[in-house]
Amino acid sequence: METARLLARFKLQVRRSLDMAVDLAALTADEQYAEKLLHEVEERAEDEELLLMVVRLRDRLRAQYQPAPVVEPANEEVVKPATPAVRDYRFGARG
Predict the structure, then answer these.
(1) 44: nearest Cα among 23, 13, 7
(2) In which domain of life is the source organism classified (predicted)?
(3) Is 35 helix (H, G, I), strand (E, B) or coil?
């Protein structure tokens, strides 16, 4: 939720300050578009708050683009404790 709020504020601030359009779907899905746009906004921005947003967004998006670590399943087999072979004779042969 916090990232969504940051993206919305970023889009509105860029539109107000720099008169640039920001495609939020492409920003979150396309790493090259995000780097290009954030670099351009960083170069053109004169507002400290906008520069802080660029830094925060860059950190969040880079973390998002990193592949999730692959967790290998353990090779250890689960050993079930041996249950004693106990027969239940309560109901007899007819069950």
Answers:
(1) 13
(2) Bacteria
(3) helix
Position 62: which residue type? R
Number of Cβ within 10 Å of residue 87's Cβ equals: 4
**Helical pair 31-44 and 48-65, crossing angle rounded to 10 deg:** 160
Instruction: Tell me the pLDDT tens digit for each residue of 29-42.
Output: 999 999 999 999 99
Q: What is the mean pLDDT of residues 66-78?
A: 70
Q: Is 54 exposed, middle or buried (0-12, 13-18, 19+ CB in 10 A)?
A: buried
Helix (H, G, I), strand (E, B) or coil at 92: coil
Mark residue 31 as left, alpha or beta (left: phi above 0; alpha: psi -120 to 50; beta: remaining).
Answer: alpha
C-alpha to C-alpha distance for 9 and 2, rounded to whole angstroms: 11
| Total-model pTM | 0.66
